[in-house]
Specification:
InterPro entries: 6-hairpin_glycosidase_sf (IPR008928), Glyco_hydro_76 (IPR005198), MUG_Protein (IPR053169). This protein has 379 residues and is an all-alpha fold. It has helices at 16-39, 54-70, 75-88, 124-141, 144-158, 181-195, 202-218, 245-261, 267-282, 304-318, 322-338, 360-376. α7 packs across α8. The protein binds 2-acetamido-2-deoxy-beta-D-glucopyranose (2 copies).
Length: 379
């Protein structure tokens, strides 16, 4: 049944005009319920969610922020998470990193200087996730410290610029030569987000975002059918490794933000091409997105699809396509109807039936789809 919460009204009573708002209310209630369930895993001592690792924790926090931006009634929960995680989160950092050589503070007048190095863990992609999460927290709170932290994290990534492939881009981590997609997509997205939020350094961030995108497109990350593979071989050729959903996602949000900061006729068409190729590869006949590792994804793989949908929603808002709206609402509806256990928790297979493992990572990833559905419902 499509509208169980409103079943008593009966379809004849619900005017066509009302249907849009009924769908929106329903989407909101579902997302709110699912946030409540997610908070059952939040650990005030660790600042992240039990059963969900370090960078996945950043992704969870991003989801909470995205919902708070759409639904003021969860703002209190979101503010609590941000401030608690800001204070205690670094205790969960698995490999406090040496990659940040100096403490970066943008404004020495601040009473609480931000030590970004506490958030670095010797994996540049993990650093990027935390930068995006703090930007999302800044967006809903306008708390300058969060933005400053993201800037500090980005500065440490700038220090890592320059690989053996064309002399640009970032390697995966300080001790590896592997040049992978996600690290570079994150660098693009963080730079582009900062360009739209730090007016006095806008050009600096635009320059880095452009530099990354120009380098990225000159490399072999994008495969023959337009999807993005995991990374490059030592000789800088495409390594043909798994087309993970998050690699089709982060780049979309990055290009949307870059196009906003420094419009260019090529950015959104590039994003649309990747999004369509990704949907062709990853969606089933009912427009529900899958990961190649299903149903037995390793812990990180359980997080990816939500990230794809989170970024597809950004593209939908900048460059609407009926296909994107359909994918987002189909995923959200399918999760709710087919991939939910009696505790209200969501699993990895959004098409259902729900299979183990069910944890904060599978749940928060699915919540991303519910949040995106709130954003696009009624459009
Ligand atoms: C910032 O954190 C790093 C890593 O824990 C530490 O080595 C450094 O002393 C800290 N700097 C400041 C100014 O607190
Ligand atoms: C596109 O190529 C990737 C391999 O790079 C493959 O996994 C995927 O299935 C292809 N998509 C389609 C629609 O054939």
């Amino acid at each position: 049944m499509l509208f169980p919460r409103h079943g008593l009204l009966g379809p004849s009573v619900v005017s066509l005009l009302l249907i849009g708002s009924v769908v929106a209310d329903d989407a909101r209630t579902r997302a709110r319920d699912a946030l409540h369930t997610l908070q059952g895993w939040y650990n005030p001592q660790s600042g992240i969610w039990d059963t969900c690792g370090w960078w996945d924790g950043a992704s969870c926090m991003n989801t909470v922020a995205d919902l708070a931006a759409l639904d003021p009634s969860v703002m209190e929960t979101a503010r609590y998470v941000f401030s608690n995680t800001f204070n205690v989160g670094p205790v969960s950092n698995p490999h406090p990193g040496p990659e940040h050589k100096t403490v970066y503070t943008r404004d020495n007048q601040l009473s609480t200087p931000v030590n970004a190095s506490l958030w670095l863990d010797q994996a540049y992609d993990d650093d990027g996730w935390w930068a995006l999460a703090w930007i999302a927290a800044y967006d809903v709170t306008k708390e300058g410290t969060y933005l400053e932290l993201a800037e500090g994290i980005f500065e440490s990534l700038v220090n890592a610029w320059g690989t053996n492939c064309g002399g640009g881009g970032l390697p995966w981590n300080p001790t590896s030569r592997y040049v992978n997609s996600i690290t570079n997509e994150l660098f693009l997205s963080v730079a582009a987000h900062l360009a739209n939020r730090v007016p006095d350094r806008k050009q600096y961030y635009v320059n880095w975002a452009r530099k990354e995108w120009d380098w990225f497109t000159a490399q072999a990350f994008i495969g023959e059918n337009g999807t993005i593979n995991d990374g490059l071989l030592d000789n800088c050729q495409n390594n043909g490794a798994t087309v993970w959903s998050y690699n089709q996602g982060v780049v979309l949000g990055g290009l949307v933000e870059l196009n906003k900061a420094a419009p260019n006729d090529a950015y959104l068409p590039s994003a649309n091409k990747i999004a369509k190729a990704a949907i062709e590869t990853l969606a089933d006949a009912n427009n529900v997105i899958h990961e190649f590792c299903e149903p037995q994804c390793l812990p990180d793989g359980t997080q990816f699809k939500g990230i794809f949908i989170r970024n597809l929603r950004m593209l939908q808002e900048a460059s609407p396509h009926d296909l994107y709206r359909k994918v987002i609402s189909s995923c959200a509806n399918s999760i709710w109807n087919n991939d939910r256990n009696e505790k209200g928790q969501f699993g990895i297979n959004w098409a259902g039936p729900i299979v183990a493992v069910v944890d904060a990572s599978t749940h928060s990833s699915a919540l991303d789809a519910l949040v995106a559905a709130v954003a696009v419902s009624g459009t």
